[in-house]
Amino acid sequence: MSNLEVLSIAELEAAAMEKMDKMTREYYNSGSDREITLRDNLAAFDRYRLRPRVLKDVSRIDTSTQLWGKKISFPLCIAPAAMAKLAHPSGEVGISRAAANAGVAVGLSSFSTSSMEDVVAQGAGAIDYAIQLYVFQNRKTSEVLVRRAERAGFKAVFLTVDTPYLGRRINEVRNRFKLPPHLQLLNFENPGDVAVYSENETKAHGGDKGKPPAAGAGVDSILPQGNVNDASLNWETDIQWLRSITKLEIWVKGILTAEDTLLAVQHGVDGIIISNHGGRQLDGVTSTLDALPECVAAAAGRIPVHIDGGIRRGTDIFKALALGADCCWVGRIPLWGLAYDGQAGVELALKLLYEEFKLCMSLAGCKSVKEISRDHLIRVKTDGTLARL
């Protein structure tokens, strides 16, 4: 395909949808329940307009910023997203190669269909990686995963805290989502240890509520509903537990309130990611962009604040930074790039976002990321009028 057919992320998404089967398409793109939060993640960015400054010297634009002590080409990185080989055989390895070529960091899902060692090898020291972590009921499974990531050279753990139970993802249930037999979850010695089963399926096969049945019990679904994560996870004990098993930076992913931001600071985490799991958990929560300002205010510069959810354009990145985010993460977009054209499709996606962001900076009168501020935004009120922040 000619790249003239894909000149925006919206066009990339449309092209990718044609190449995915229904089960994969709805697994990647759906949200929970009525998908209110899924839609609002997108709509939130349109509730802001840009306030450009003119007669600024923008003959040279520096889009770069710092993450984990290393320069990244622009303030956008690849968020953890499960089972990338559903989109393309190169999977997470293809995403990693594209990220390395673009000079941005990668977050790898625990439920990766490529091994963490193979993924990190693609960066060859040029970029950094974080491992996304669920704390399973079997804590040893999580501990082994973290220690393996540390040996592989990862920089951080993204502790995912918004999934004590899985959200009600209706399309996954209806489609009986499952990983095809030719694919495996390669970050676990025994993938059956992390399979998630509904309560009815578990009881039908003789298991206890909330615990998976024995391997080979005949359950064909990996992530429909139910629970395998440790629902007892809490601030008081588990940040300290994680700190006791690793020297990696500990970031908390899934924060939406000032109160939890303050607790993150209090418990000494290294950073937070404002996230609602792409609208796949509790439906009806605030969009991540709407949650961002109160979390930035609570953090007060003591820890970095990153954001994911709803980012589709370079102007979205600009708006998030103007509201105080230090960096943005995208999860679905790399999957669409993979489905469209493998590694080359991911590179195209990152190029589109980079060029849009750079153009937005120049037209807004910002020659460096540090110059982006709240003064560059105005909010659209419910009656359609505009209000200064």
From TrEMBL:
One Pfam family cited in the UniProt record for this chain: FMN_dh
Q: Determine if RNA-binding is one of this entry's keywords.
A: no
What PROSITE patterns does its record include? FMN_HYDROXY_ACID_DH_1, FMN_HYDROXY_ACID_DH_2
Q: Which UniProt keywords apply?
A: Flavoprotein, FMN, Oxidoreductase
For this record, the Gene Ontology CC terms, alphabetical, are:
cytoplasm
Any one Gene Ontology MF annotation carried by this entry is: oxidoreductase activity
FMN hydroxy acid dehydrogenase domain ranges (all copies): 1-382
* UniProt xrefs under InterPro entries: Aldolase_TIM (IPR013785), Alpha-hydoxy_acid_DH_FMN (IPR012133), FMN-dep_DH (IPR000262), FMN_HAD (IPR037396), FMN_hydac_DH_AS (IPR008259)
Lyase recorded as keyword: no
Q: Identify the domain of life.
A: Eukaryota
Binding site residues for glyoxylate: 27, 132, 134, 169, 277, 280
Reported cofactor(s): FMN
Residues of the active site are 277
Q: Which positions bind FMN?
A: 80-82, 109, 160, 253, 275, 308-312, 331-332
Write out the similarity annotation: Belongs to the FMN-dependent alpha-hydroxy acid dehydrogenase family.
Provide the protein name: Oxidase FUB9
